[in-house]
């Protein structure tokens, strides 16, 4: 058999090629390429002819082939450790929607298990991602710095703010969030107060506990307990709340995360402990489940949608202009009062 093979059929239909679009539009193949390349120079008239031909033929540009020519894949590594936390499913929805809106695509990596950090970075380098978004308060030690050393633009969302951060951080003042939770409890005359965090090494848990204790110290008090459930999950929160009720029976508990707080509320139901009459519970995040009538959780809100948009906006600006300096930003938190305090 002689001659070149045509486009590979799929389901009996051949994929249109750029050359076919060029022939149909009466233009060069380079004009087709420029039409589908961001910021490329092409006249409005020629663009209209190419787009009309592409629409008629059902043509879609081959992004993999284009990345070989441009050196850009439009891939952004999205890495986290919180895939088991329902709150972060909402966060990932925000990330993926905003990335796709900007013509970017996420390459997701799970850093939950020990040893996955090196493999995740290797995967992102193999796929030649254009940038990395770290979406966790507790990435493996040195991971952000390793991404930066590899020459990748990096923004850390939900990280710890500070001058020693190896990459720009988009976050909230977690210490202030802990103080705000304590203020709400003290204002109601509650005095036996406890903190329940996730992992003891998690920066956000540490900072929220610190702010909580600082505010109590100003009132001449100290927490009756500062406990760490080990993970941000409903089951960890439920079990840890049972332990707090057995050992301390506090007036109120500040949970460093909404999903912990929901587990704590369910533990109270199992013990027939009335909320908020016998014990108060405050969370952190303001995830969608917190507002459900069955929970009606009082919580500290961090504006996740705004944080995600800012982080992706910074990455998009850097990709459009390599001279753009990625900026950190500290967002404000707020108390959302519902029925659990």
UniProtKB/TrEMBL annotation:
CDD domains given in the database record: HTH_LacI, PBP1_LacI-like
Keywords per UniProt: DNA-binding, Transcription, Transcription regulation
Tagged with keyword Nucleotide-binding: no
UniProt cross-references to InterPro entries, sorted A to Z: HTH_LacI (IPR000843), LacI/GalR-like_sensor (IPR046335), Lambda_DNA-bd_dom_sf (IPR010982), Peripla_BP_I (IPR028082)
SMART domains associated with the record: HTH_LACI
Superkingdom, natural source: Bacteria
GO molecular function: DNA binding
Boundaries of every HTH lacI-type domain copy: 16-70
Name of this protein: DNA-binding LacI/PurR family transcriptional regulator
Top-level taxonomy: Bacteria, Pseudomonadati, Pseudomonadota, Alphaproteobacteria, Rhodospirillales
């Amino acid at each position: 058999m002689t001659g070149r093979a045509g486009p590979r059929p799929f389901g009996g239909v051949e994929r249109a090629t750029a050359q076919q679009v060029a022939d149909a539009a009466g233009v060069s193949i380079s004009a087709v390429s420029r039409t589908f390349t961001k910021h490329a120079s092409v006249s409005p008239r020629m663009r209209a002819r190419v787009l009309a031909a592409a629409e008629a033929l059902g043509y879609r540009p081959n992004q993999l082939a284009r990345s070989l020519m441009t050196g850009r894949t439009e891939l952004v590594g999205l890495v986290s450790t919180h895939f088991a936390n329902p709150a972060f499913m909402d966060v990932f929805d925000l990330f993926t929607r905003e990335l796709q809106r900007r013509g970017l695509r996420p390459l997701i990596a799970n850093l939950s298990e020990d040893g996955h950090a090196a493999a995740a970075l290797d995967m992102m380098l193999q796929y030649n991602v254009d940038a990395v978004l770290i979406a966790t308060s507790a990435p493996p030690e040195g991971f952000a710095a390793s991404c930066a050393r590899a020459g990748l633009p990096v923004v850390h969302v939900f990280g710890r703010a500070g001058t020693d951060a190896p990459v720009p951080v988009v976050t909230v003042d977690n210490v202030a969030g802990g103080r705000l939770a304590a203020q709400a409890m003290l204002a109601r005359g509650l005095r036996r107060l406890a903190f329940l965090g996730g992992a003891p090494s998690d920066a956000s848990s540490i900072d929220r506990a610190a702010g909580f204790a600082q505010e109590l110290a100003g009132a001449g008090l100290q927490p009756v307990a500062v406990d760490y459930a080990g993970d941000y999950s409903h089951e960890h929160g439920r079990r840890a709340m049972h332990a707090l009720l057995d050992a301390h029976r506090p007036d109120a508990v500040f949970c460093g995360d909404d999903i912990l707080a929901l587990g704590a509320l369910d533990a109270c139901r199992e013990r027939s402990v009335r909320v908020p009459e016998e014990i108060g519970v405050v969370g952190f995040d303001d995830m969608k489940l917190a507002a459900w009538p069955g929970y009606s959780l009082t919580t500290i809100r961090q504006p996740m949608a705004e944080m995600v948009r800012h982080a992706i906006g910074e990455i998009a600006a850097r990709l459009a202009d390599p001279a753009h300096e990625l900026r950190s930003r500290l967002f404000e938190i707020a108390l959302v009062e519902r029925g659990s305090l």
